[in-house]
Amino acid sequence: MRADPIQRAIDEDLVRVLYAQDPIAFFSHWFSIAVLVAIYWPAIPSPPLFIACFGFYAAANCAGLALWICNRRYPHVMSPRGWINLHAVRGVLLYSAPGIAIWFAFQSPQSDLPLLHTVMLVTLAAGVFMSNGFDLLNFATAIPFLLFPSIVLHFGTHTFDRTIVAIVLAFFFCAINVYALSYRKLFQQVVQARVDQQYLAESLAVQKHVAEEASLAKTRFFAAASHDLRQPLHAIGLLAASLNDPAATPAQHAKTAEHIVYNVEALNQLFNQVLDLARLESGVTQVIRLHFRLSELFERVGSQYRPQAAAKGLALRIAPTSMVVHDDPVLLERVLSNLLSNAVRYTEEGAIWLGVRRAGRATGGYIEVRDSGIGIPVEEHERIFEEFYQVANPQRDARQGHGLGLPTVKRLVSMLGGELQLRSAPGRGSVFRFPVQAGDASGIVASLNEAVAGGASAQGRQVLCIDDEPSILEGLSALLGRWGCTVRGARDETAALAALADGFVPDAVLCDYQLANHRTGAQALTAVRNMLARAGHEGVVTLLITGDMASAELAALALQGIPVLHKPVTAARLRRTLEMLWQQAELDKGRAAAVVELPAADKVTDAGSKGGSSSKDTGADGVTMPPGAARIEARHRPQSASQEEG
Ligand code: ADP
Which InterPro entries match (predicted)? Predict the structure, then answer.
């Protein structure tokens, strides 16, 4: 990947180094011409040839300077390699003249001229080594022209001292080549180190920018989150304090309690949205693709949002489709719930349209949610996908949402392998669309809206609760007791095993993740399950409650077949999850053959969907499900919020 930039950097540096020496070389060559002419002057052999040769030498020297000027003035007329090649041509022309001119010395009657000329050539060769040694081409084209004629002619004299000179010259030629080789290697290493450093500096600058952006986004996230979380907390504090007012009537107390519940629910929704986003980020949520009819999913979400739309006088139109898709219905429903919720919220008149279009795709299509609402200015199209960003809610009024819906949708769509597209302008409505994969009708194993057979009521169930916090055990016992369950509380694993040894056979075991004495809920549940299995009670529902978001840990728990419920846990969510798990257990027992088989890789998904009258889809309801439960959840979720909350 980076070989080319390095070669280019080497070439660029070479051009700089080679041409930088040329003005000095220009004067050195005039000096050489002057010296050579001076030593030949007393008796110039073959004057016309001599004049032609030295005239050519002088012209080549001037051409070298012209080339240097061109390079200075027009460095970009050719590539660095082009300049290097031209410089090599200049070398051939420039060094061939003095090199070949030694022939005149051997023609001369003066016996010391060959030696004097050779000394001149060795001096020039040293200059070439210094100025052109960095580049093989420039070095290799100059040195042989300078030294070879001299070596050959000295050898040709067949006298002892000239043969010695020829041998020394040949040795010098070899040595200078070896030195030039290491000179070139060193040069390349220096350039490579410089390029690496530059590359590192650039990538560090990019990373720094990304880190700064992330830090800014985090700051914005926490600022908005802490504000939105503080508001209902503040209200709850004030309302709770007013409960102590002895002058308040029972009716006022009831009203205050109602407000507290409302604020707790608001807080809960916000927590769920934040946790849902965090779960998507942490990679715990996995995609489980099923073949299903898109019309069924449209029907489900349509029925959730039609009453809200109708209440605002809006028509919710669902385009009929017979398309079968291969996608994750749970995640897809969360996407559509969020988009429809926004469409209803930001549309005052007209209609909302939900449908699928082929839009030029050979297979599958694009699901579109359109509205005739207020629209979104183009300059906000990117920012609305940032956490807590809202176009027009400067007071951060919680009733107008929190700005977490679209970031969630965007992540979900990208998890499903697509890209969320937006077309919108103020006053002209909005269109959100994303691709879906085509499915295969023969791959459909169950209708999305199929109801679960068999009752899964909490009435008459035995539940073992493990938590080291007595107040939580007390709260759970009271709640489950109201649902008609028989509850047994245990502070730790040992107490839980003692309860089992006592003959208590639970239908469900609820366990906190962090227990006392460095024990985890996963360890306690494993011990309980093993003991129950030894006693012949297989398939007891187990549920872990955690505030932890560590994905590796959660994934490991899911692999052990332990569903995880994320704190904060509301009564409705707990009940819904327990009923779902009991349904799952009953179905596993009675209808094992009917359960959809999934590939081993499709393991865990968040389950549940919270549609509902006023809330955005908070997504996973804080539940991470093991493979089996996820399958059931995908097929048999309760259909509306009211059913769920009941
Ligand atoms: P929320 O709706 O809870 O504020 P979202 O993340 O879902 O948060 O949306 C972010 C912002 O994008 C909204 O505050 C709203 O300004 C804008 N927006 C989203 N959907 C629409 C829509 N269908 N029409 C107009 N504006 C929208």
Answer: CheY-like_superfamily, HATPase_C_sf, HATPase_dom, His_kinase_dom, HisK_dim/P_dom, HisK_dim/P_sf, Sig_transdc_His_kin-like_C, Sig_transdc_resp-reg_receiver
State the CB neighbour count (10 A cutoff) for residue 446: 15
Per-residue exposure over 172-191, b if at least 16 CB sit within 10 Å of its own CB, e if not: bbeebbeebeebbeebbeeb
Per the structure block, which two tokens stand in for 201?
């500096």
Report if residue 111 sits inside a domain. Answer: yes
Per-residue model confidence (pLDDT) at position 449: 63
Across 383-392, 522-531, 549-558, 598-607, least confident range = 598-607
Q: Which atom of ligand 1 has the smallest separation from the CA of 393?
A: 14
193 with 264, same domain: the answer is no
Q: What pLDDT is attached to residue 369? A: 97
Give the three-class secondary structure for 208.
helix
Query: Are the C-beta atoms of residues 573 and 621 closer than 8 Å to each other?
Result: yes
Are 190 and 76 in the same domain? yes
The parent domain of residue 232 ranges over 220-271
Q: What is the pLDDT of residue 558?
A: 65
Q: In testing the pocket of ligand 1, which one of 390, 409, 422, 614 has its CB within 8 Å of the most ligand atoms? A: 390
Q: How confident is the model over 97-109, as a mean pLDDT? A: 93
Per-residue pLDDT, averaged over 501-517, amounts to: 90
Same domain, 501 and 472: yes
Residue type, 124: L
Give the global pTM. Answer: 0.53
Q: What is the pLDDT of residues 529-558, one digit of tens each?
A: 999 999 888 878 888 887 766 556 666 676
148 lies in some domain: yes
Closest of 512, 630, 641, 511 to residue 580, by C-alpha: 630
Identify whether the C-beta of residue 284 lies closer than 8 Å to the C-beta of residue 630. Answer: no
Residue 144 near residue 152, CB atoms below 8 Å = no
Question: Does residue 414 sit in the same domain as residue 540?
Answer: no
Pocket test for ligand 1, best of 346, 424, 617 (most atoms within 8 A of CB): 346
Q: Are 398 and 481 part of one and the same domain?
A: no
**Does 213 reside within a domain?**
no
For ligand 1, mutation pick of 342, 371, 412 (most atoms within 8 Å of CB): 342
| Banded model confidence at residue 606, pLDDT cuts 50, 70, 90 | very low
Residue 277 domain flag: no
Quick one: CA dihedral 61, 63, 64, 66, positive or negative? positive
- CA–centroid distance for 245 within its chain: 54
Q: Is residue 531 located within the same domain as residue 577? A: yes
| 632 lies in the same domain as 583 | yes
Task: State whether 248 and 341 are in the same domain.
Answer: no
> Alpha helices, DSSP H only, in 283-328?
294-311
- The span from the CA of 265 to the CA of 259, in Å, is 10
Report the pocket of ligand 1 as residue ranges, CB < 6 Å: 342-343, 346, 371, 373-376, 384, 390-393, 401-407, 430, 616
Q: Do residues 480 and 472 make contact, with C-beta atoms less than 8 angstroms apart?
A: no
CATH of residue 367's domain is: 3.30.565.10
pLDDT at 395 over 70: no
CA of 423 to the centre of ligand 1 (A): 13
Q: Write out pLDDT tens, residues 563-594.
A: 777 776 767 778 877 877 887 777 666 644 44
Report how many domains make up the chain: 4
Ligand 1, atom 7: nearest CA belongs to which residue?
405
pLDDT at 643: 31
Contact, 499 vs 488, CB < 8 A?
A: yes
